[in-house]
Amino acid sequence: MPPARVSAPAASVLGMAKAAKSTFRCAECGWTTLKWVGRCGECQAWGTVEESGAAVSGGVAPARVSSPALPITEVDIESAHAERSGIDELDRVLGGGIVPGAVLLLAGEPGVGKSTLLLETAAMCAARGPVLYVTGEESASQVRLRAERLGALDPKLYLAAENSVAALAGHVESIAPSLLIVDSVQTMYAPDATGVPGGVTQVREVAAALIRLSKARNIATVLVGHVTKDGSIAGPRVLEHLVDVVLSFDGDRHSPLRLLRAVKNRYGPSDEIGCFELTDSGIIGLPDPSGLFLTRRNEPVPGTCVTVTVEGRRPLIAEVQALVAPTNAPQPRRTTSGLDSARTAMIMAVLERRAGMQMGNADIYASTVGGVRLSEPSVDLALALALAGSKRDLALPRGLIALGEVGLAGDVRAVNGVERRLAEAQRLGFTRAIVPKHSEEPVPGIETIGVEDLGQALRAAFPSKQG
Questions:
Q1: Strands 282-285, 273-279: parallel, antiparallel or unpaired by DSSP?
Q2: 112 annotated to a ligand binding site
Q3: Is 18 marked within a binding site?
Q4: What is the pTM of this model?
Q5: Would the annotation count 97 as a binding residue?
Q6: For residue range 348-395, what is the model confidence (pLDDT) as tens digits?
Q7: H-run or E-run covering 388
Q8: For residue range 23-70, what is the model confidence (pLDDT) as tens digits?
Q9: Is 319 annotated as a binding residue?
């Protein structure tokens, strides 16, 4: 029998049926695929790929535009200027202040001081216009008690205890705030979305609704986010892509120092850092925090070395301490605090191989002072000198700093911003610096010693004992 002929309209329908296929989307990063897979091909997360509907390969019908396209030279930028928050360290990180209509995500561990920082910021901004603080974790009376303790009371600061995005939108409609703070995005829920509050679907829908509300009304919005046990922001990764600014607030709970870092910033630098001190009466900005990272002592002690690290654009004086203690245990201990454990192990291996120091029969402890975390390669030389000083029981001369990256061959490599680092060290009273060769920037008041390898650095640091 001859094959049945298909009419043109029917063929068109069949063609559209073939073109319209279900797509699958990762709830974490947004990666799409035409077939279901158990593991995302982009972020490698398991069980996050969900069906997201049909993908039609045909054309898209034009729709009414929300606003006409303009030449870039005619776009108004007056409404995009940043407004100062009243907290200098926060403005430094944001690049000058909070931009109207921007959406900020502030993440940090529990108890680090996120709510305290935002409550003081809200009270400062309330002097210019209404501010709405929505809490989903506490009652309004509990937030009021903390505000009284911090002295953050203002009649234009409005508090609301809500968990529904719809109810939050009602508060925004009645108050018309210039700043909206949501503490936290994981406790809010969207009535039209499935899942429980804090789940992937709910967090994505809540964030999308708040972003639409912020952009439509030109309201600066700050979202508080929880973090997981490894320090990353909880919820879908797409949350970080949707917002304009991602801030990380961290610090050692046993230390009053808190560091605010800009992980992502569409309106300013993304490598800036702000320093705060958390006290019983609130949180205080530290424009000059270098003194917190040094130990005040009368005489030099073996196993310590001072260096200058650059956090964002700010040079900071920091002290590295090391203890090398002989042991008969078959597996010596290796403990670090504030330093990268892998990089510390590399420095120990370089000292043993290139400088002849036996490290395999000793427990080794390395840490920083003041709870600061040092991950920059310029800290390598200071760590190596601290380990060598503890191993030989020799103290570095007073007023000496060291900075430089140490390679596997024992060479000391150049680092950026040497002049800025030396100027900061000279300002705090240091008189000598061991730096990589050809990096001896002339800074008045401080003597620089250029070294090419670790052996030269050890001879310059411990002139009383060669090698």
A1: antiparallel
A2: yes
A3: no
A4: 0.76
A5: no
A6: 999 999 999 999 899 999 999 877 889 899 999 999 999 999 999 999
A7: helix 380-392
A8: 888 877 778 888 889 888 888 888 888 877 554 445 566 777 777 898
A9: no
